[in-house]
Fold:
Amino acid sequence: MIPPSRHAAFLWAIAAVVLIPLLLCSTAASAATAEAKADPADKLRSSCFRFVERKLSKRSIDSVQWSSGMTMTFAGFDKSNETLKATSGESSLDVPLRSIKTRDLATLMKAASGSEDSPDADGYILAAVLLLSDGDQDGALRLVERAKMQAAGVDESFARWVGLLGLEIKAPEPKPIAEAKKTDGGENSEIGNAGESAPQVSGGGKLPTGIGAKRRAVSKEHPRLFGSRARLQALAQERAVAYSGMVSYAKTKDGNDPTALPAMALVSCLEGDADLAREAIARVMVYANGPIKVGHVTFGHDLALSAMVYDHCWSYWKAEEKATFIEYMNKTVDANVGSETSPFHNGYYGYKNWGIGLACYATMYENPRAAEILATLDNDFRTRAVPCLELAGDGGAWSEGHYIHYWNYEWLVFCEAARLCEGVDYYPLAPKFFANRAVASMFQMLPGHQPMEMNRAVPDGDGGYGTYGGFSEKILAARRILVNYYRNDLAHQMVHTYNQIVPHLCIPEYAYMDFLWNDLSVAKADLKSYKLSHYAPGAGHVYARSSWDGDSTYLFFKCSDRMTAHQQLDVGHFFIYRQEHLAGDSGVYDAFDSNHCANYYLRSIAHNTMLVYDPSEKFPDGIRAGPASANDGGQWYPWYGTPMGHNGGCADYPMYAASKQLTDIADVLAYEDHGSWMYTAGDCSRAYNPAKLSVFTRQIVFIRPSTFVIFDRVKSTKPEFKKTWVLNLHKAPTGTAPNIVSTNGNGKLFIQTVLPANAEQTLHQGAQLYAYEGKTFPPRAAAGAGVPLPECRLEVSPKTPLASDVFLHVLTATDGKTDTVPKAEAKSTASDVTVTVGSAVIRFEVNSVGGSITVNGQKGTLANKIQQ
Structure:
């Protein structure tokens, strides 16, 4: 709070006798001598008029709602007569400056500030000062927050005006909380919270950002996790639609659904609803009185949801309930010191530490161990997790795959609580991840038109099918958190534009996420002008699309090092989407260690990559602690029996660095996007047993809008080791080899096998889809219900066994109405292969990764370089 600069009575006298009349006058400073000191009120109005004059010199200021009820459009400034040129309906008006009321001038300033694509912070500051002088503190502070989204130094500028005019900012009056009902135990829960005031966050409650944010003492008041009650009240006004949805869901009291707890906690706090608070507490006490969860279970989720209830319903807890909860929290922490310790794995963030962190902030001062536990978490994140995030998360993706869409949101919630509770900012510690995560997330989404299509993540690793679910709501909420933080970055403004295609979350139980994180004050940018591909070096992922339209053609290519358990044997895999899933991952995540998972779902045969079959190769018994393993001819599993264990995961960065022969299994060799075409290449060789394969490189040229040219170089240690190019299709193809087409709904994939010449093509579907080596590995029947899965596998092999082979395929993704695509024609020499597709001519080198390209007469080089 900014203290008053004069005694209250003196302030009132100044306001009544001097300030208000001056605000209704024209600028007196123009008549004063150069040496005379301008009156503060005159100076304010003069600054406002100069601002409006500057804006009107560029464009009109439209649709300004005047206090008289008229809607005005201002088109010019007559300096000589000190009037504004305006129209209202069919009437033309000259508005004398001296006649403009303070409230109307503030309205005009707001309209002028927001009339351009880039809102003007100076105008918002001046309008805020006018509103404050007119007695509207809430409106003033909201404008200050809007100004802070556009420029630095806003608080200082606003404070100078406040001091100059002798104004005062009063602490907001919180809405009184209804007195808690007496419980059966006879205790009347304490309502007032003694101690320090929570740090005030004005208006919409934007948080401090940047590496300079300083640690401060945690407030002794509740609530505190997501800010003070005053801040939450401001959000309820600012985000009325989200708040209404949250209230509606909280009061349905949907069974014992734990996802209702955040909404119940927030609503009971804001509305003083004792009954709702007591019901939420009763649900938390089920956790607190139950057995302590240990290991790879969601004990952190239980703690996180419980912490929200503890904090926001604090006044309604009985003393003995608080003691029981704190004991439960401490026992859970102690029991899980050795659980979920790998920062490469989702469990570190989601299953464990976000919940521990939130519980510490919620129980600070009441739990004697909270500060110590929080300090341990803080140190572990800084020393162990940050190196992993900067390595595996460079570029914003994550090698583990689909599970990032769960843990990322949860960890970001803790990070936001840390910033709100004590000003600790974790984002600058791992900028390669956090500063790129929202952009990578946007590129991981499949194209679509409807809200429930926009946040379907591309299948990647265990558990992802490209469908919509609760994790999709977390995906969008996580991007919103990061967009709010990086709001002045153009790329994040692009993401904000994408986010707002879905104005509100689609599943009612997650409305509280909209309430907390959907900040509409972030500036939007022109998404159609944004890049069409993204490379994430940490994960070895490339994402590309033909446009930002809903019917865009989409490509995902992965060439990842080995870091953690949920990765699969899918180096070199690609995924294609156009209107529907066309070429993707096969199999079902029916269990981590099932027969289907260990022998099919995680294997190379279930992905669009390469098989080289050595009949003597043995896959270890115990992949993911699963049953005896068959030989699909795919990538090997060398981690069993090493420190990386049967899950093939690194405990931390030092283990990764010390195990390079086991972890460094792939390289993205090239990435460049030239608009009409995008090129990427990867070395997949080290992902295979060196006893059978010495070279496997893959080059992909995406000729926008719909054609993929895929060139593979493969060298086996023996000619007789059969090489098989694999393509998992969502629908069985029609046509005659080598040119066939797979149709799925309104999407088609035309498949041309150009090389090897006269290749063998076989199709596996039905009962044979999950079979190889005379064995079958079907998933558990119910596991794949309702998810889009490939229905067949196309295998392409050379007829003549050779040690070295090249494979050339042209895949064209179209809508369902397309009947033909340009035929691909190739010419081969000992040193290169040249393929012509429509207006594109692409030359691939046979003995190295390289080549050249000509598209529509424009020439380029397929070079081994990363060009971001």
